[in-house]
Fold this protein.
Amino acid sequence: MCPPPPPPPASRLSSVSTMLTLYERSRIDAVGEGQIATVHRDSIHEVLRDVRERRARAVVVSVARCRPDESRQVARMVRDYPSVRTVALLTDAGAQAPHAVLSLGQSGVRHLIDARRPGGWQALREALVQDDSADVLRRAAALVARDLASTGLITRFDALQGEPTEEVDEAWRFFDTLFSLPVTTTTVTELARAFGAALTTFMSRFHRIALPQPKRYLDMTRLMRAAALFESHTLSLRHVAFSLYYSSPQALARSIESTLGVKSLVFRNEYDGATMVDVFRQRLVLPYLHAYPRFPPVPRKAYKEP
């Protein structure tokens, strides 16, 4: 069992603007200690100002404090600042709660944390902790989608905003799943499980059409995350290793050297997130565009629906 990552420097804390009850404020401060820097506000107008002035990377709105007349401002915030995660927090199912939840949903809020459930507060903390490494995977997904579209594999590019059509087929589905996996996915067995497939079946499909082994895709994806985190010069090798669930800093260093053939110091100084996205595409996508049309990692019906 690997030790927890060291606390991030103060400048790396996730800045969160809230509109909560007094009870909810005390609880979020407690569960987010060392990870989240909260600024508690009394109105959506003040929260919107935090977002507009880039003082908040996430927003938490209490279902108990959401008034119908504030839904327009919430909708505006969600629409104008899509990169800022907005979370609705439910701690008390009062008479007005169903209406408030519906109102927030109609305003575009897509994340609801029910803190009454076991693990609810922990789920809130995980939803708010800053993860710069996720941004690089979104960039990778967009570029890989274009690579596949150039071959006709993705026949409706707007399908990437929703459920792909049957004709889009499994090449994109594989990458979409790969880039959406939680950071805790560290083994090929877990990767296969994400597709609902047995490990041997999963690996054989790569071998059958001479694609790189799944471990290379997973290792490269994890190093994209690492490169993005290293863009902050305040983070140590140890912090990045444990943040990405490597067993030790040495394990991360070995992965860098075996995957890229460079030392960890060179990786830190010369590889940023954009560079690693390009390395991923040059090594694992572009040379195999001819093979991906024959690539269902598992049968279509085996995929788990989100």
User: Anything to note?
Assistant: Residues 1-12, 156-168, 301-306 have pLDDT under 50 and may be disordered. The chain has two domains: 10-128, 133-302. Strands lie at 14-19, 36-40, 58-62, 85-90, 111-114. The CA atoms of residues 15 and 54 lie 9 Å apart.
